[in-house]
Design goal:
Blueprint lengths: L1 H21 L2 E6 L7 H16 L4 E6 L7 H10 L4 E5 L22 H9 L1 H9 L6 E15 L14 E4 L3 H9 L3 E4 L5 H7 L4 E5 H6 L8 E16 L1 H5 L3 H35 L3 E3 L4 H7 L1 H11 L1 H9 L4
Parallel strand pairs: 1-2, 1-3, 5-6, 5-7, 8-9
Antiparallel strand pairs: 3-8, 4-7, 4-8
Helix pairs in contact: 2-10, 6-12, 12-13
The structure holds (2R,3R)-2,3,4-trihydroxybutanoic acid (EAX).
Length: 326
């Protein structure tokens, strides 16, 4: 009997070991916004592409709406290795990778095409490489979109109108410095808390790309939307370096290709949301101010921009502004 039990035990152990070596490796990726969004499309596409390109050896489990926490929390989890992957805006990233701060400067990029060309070109690739010494593998850039302002107090037509407004901001030092420079009372907060904060009046307003505001149904809690286009908001594909190192060279390429496809789908959705956003908000009762004189906002930021030039290097800023190819 004993030897029979031993044999059964041995078979089970072998079976498990054998099963484990054939088993799929499951990795997790998360976003703070809902699945039906430009970020949801990004990670859904990534997951599908990874599975196809690795013949199902890698399975990417997708988490939405802050199910694994807000961006700062899951960026940290990826750095620590308790989570393998994340698709994050650059909101909290300067707290981990200070070199990326320059990308969060207001009115740096002329438009999305300019931003995409910079991120996909040498400047973007140089910045991706900087993530490594801060404990991340960055697979590529994605997009959150061009940010605009909403609030419940008054329509914003000019810089003076934002003075004294209490606005939720991302936990981003560059954004906060700029908004303070405009006289805004900044309230940094993780995204999963924003809807409730707007609903309860903890803050008067917030700023985000149209894609985020549509997906977050902010029309239910905001009266005025102004297309300030004050800053471009990149996303980045983050991976834990240990998880990356475990991939074969061919699988690493599969992950990079999957991220590229994810970004393609992500940017397409941003364009679609930008094209339909104004009509969406108007039809949901939000007053939309489409044309503001952006030059006046740039002028109002002169003092803050002088500081950014010192911090990031005027030549680095100029190199981005001069980038052709958009
Ligand atoms: O991915 O926190 C933010 O405002 C970001 O733009 C986004 O909503 C989270």
């Amino acid at each position: 009997m004993k030897s029979r039990n031993f044999l059964i035990g041995l078979c089970l152990a072998l079976g498990l070991a054998c099963g484990a070596s054939q088993a799929q490796t499951v990795m997790r990726i998360s976003i703070a916004t809902s699945q039906d969004s430009h970020q949801g499309v990004a990670i859904d596409t990534f997951a599908r592409e990874v599975e196809q390109r690795t013949q199902g050896r890698y399975v990417i489990k997708t988490f939405y709406s802050g199910a694994l926490g807000g961006e700062r929390e899951y960026d940290e989890a990826v750095q620590l290795g308790t989570q393998e992957l994340a698709f994050s805006t650059t909101g909290p990233i300067p707290n981990f990778v200070p070199e990326t701060k320059i990308l969060d400067m207001p009115f740096l990029f002329r438009d999305k095409a300019h931003a995409r060309a910079v991120l996909d070109g040498p400047i973007g690739q140089e910045l991706l490489a900087k993530f490594e010494k801060h404990g991340f593998k960055a697979l590529g850039w994605g997009e959150n979109g061009v940010r605009h302002m909403t609030n419940n107090v008054r329509p914003i037509n000019q810089p003076a109108d934002v003075k004294g407004l209490k606005m939720r901001t991302m936990e981003n030092p560059v954004h906060m410095a700029a908004f303070k420079g405009l006289g805004i009372i900044t309230t940094p907060m993780a995204f999963p808390e924003v809807f409730t904060a707007l609903q309860q009046g903890t803050v008067d307003g917030q700023e985000n790309p149209l894609s985020i505001m549509i997906a977050g149904k902010f029309d239910q809690v905001q009266k005025y939307l102004t297309l300030t286009g004050h800053v471009y908001s990149p996303c980045v594909w983050l991976m834990n370096p240990g998880a990356w190192a475990q991939l074969s060279a061919a699988d690493q390429q599969a992950f990079l290709d999957a991220a590229r496809e994810g970004t393609r789908a992500n940017r397409e959705r941003v364009d679609k949301d930008d094209a339909s956003g104004v009509a969406y908000f108007r039809s949901h009762g939000v007053q939309v101010i489409e044309n503001v004189d952006k030059g006046r906002f740039v002028d109002a930021l002169a003092r803050v921009n002088a500081q950014f030039e010192k911090d990031f290097g005027a030549e680095n800023i100029q190199r981005i502004r001069d980038h052709k190819g958009s």
